[in-house]
Amino acid sequence: MSEKVCVGAIAGAFGVRGEVRLKSFTATPSDIAEYAPLETEDGTQSFTIKITRQIKNGLAARLSGITNKEAADAMRGVQLFVPRERLPSLPDDEFYHADLIGLTVTDTGGTSLGKVLSIINNGSDDLLELSAPGQKQTVLLPFTKAVVPTVDLTQGRIVADPPEGLFS
User: Fold this and answer.
1) How far apart are CA 109 and CA 157, in angstroms?
2) For residues 16-24, average pLDDT
3) Which of 90, 115, 150, 151 could disulfide-link to 94, CB 3.0 to 4.6 Å?
C-alpha cells in the first residue's frame, strides 16, 4: 500500500481566468475538495481547491496559485495526491484502486493469471487490466464478486474464477 493516493488529475485549462478542468477519481467527484490540500506526486506543489461547477467529463475548479489560462494549461496531466490517512476507511468489500495495482492474481487452483496493471471503469463494473504470463496483450478481467471472490490485501493477492476462454 502506498503512502499517497491519486485522487484526481488536471486535464488542462477551463476558460481564461485560471480555472482548470479536473478529473476526480473519488466515488463522489466533488468530494475531491474535502481532501485538500492536494499535492503533486513528488510533493513539491500543494493546492487548496474550490470546485466552481460541473462540466462535461469532470469539474471546473480553482487551484491556489493558478491565476491565468497559461498557468492552468501548464498543469495539464498533473496528478493530484493526498496522504492515505486523509481518506476514509472502506467497507470490507470495497478497495482503493491504488491498493489493487501490482497485486498477483491467481485462479482458484493457485495458477498465476498475472499482475494487476490498472483498474478500468467501463460504466457498469470495473475491469482489472492484467499482464498475463505468456500473453502479448493485457487481459481484462471483470471485477465482480462472481469472478473475483477473494481480494486479500494483507497477502497481496487476488483469487479469480475467470470466465471460460478468457486466458486462452
Assistant:
1) 13
2) 94
3) 90
DSSP reduced 3-state for 128: strand
Quote the pTM value: 0.72
Q: What is the CATH number for 46?
A: 2.40.30.60
d(CA 56, CA 48): 22
Query: Structural domain of residue 30, as residue ranges?
Result: 4-86
Write out the E strands in 74-163. Answer: 79-83, 104-107, 112-121, 126-131, 139-142, 150-152, 157-160
C-alpha cell at position 91? 467497507
Q: How far is Cα 31 from Cα 28, in angstroms, rounded to an integer? A: 6
81 burial via Cβ count (<10 Å: 0-12, 13-18, 19+): buried
Residue 129's pLDDT is 94
